[in-house]
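Batch 3, record 17
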Amino acid sequence: MSQEWRLHAVCRTTDPAMWDSPTYAPGSDIQADVARVRLALRFCAVCPVVAACNADAVATSPVSVVRAGRVYDADGQASRDCEHCGAAIVTRNRAMARHCSKSCRNAARYRAARQERLTAA
Ligand code: SF4
Ligand SMILES: [Zn+2]
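Prediction for the assembled complex:
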């Protein structure tokens, strides 16, 4: 597979350390780590080669990095997408979480309650 797409990667000139996945290690600055990863994900959201990057990630099974809008853990597990907005879930309990943020969780609850009211009416 040609690697020419890398020339157009939005992350090409960024600090590689920006693309490490959060470790959630005791004593580490978890909030700063999560903020950094969310910023990296914003880069991916506007990257013109995200499809090629994703194909490369699927083929190479990256670990402990952010790639193509997903966060890959140390065991190669890719993050799940938020059920409300579709963004990658970047929280310590992301294996269980269904939403990427409190605001998405609240919005999903509001939408579900509204749907319930409409159905009951
Ligand atoms: S999708 Fe993200 S990780 Fe992939 S090349 Fe673009 S900015 Fe880099
Ligand atoms: Zn969300």
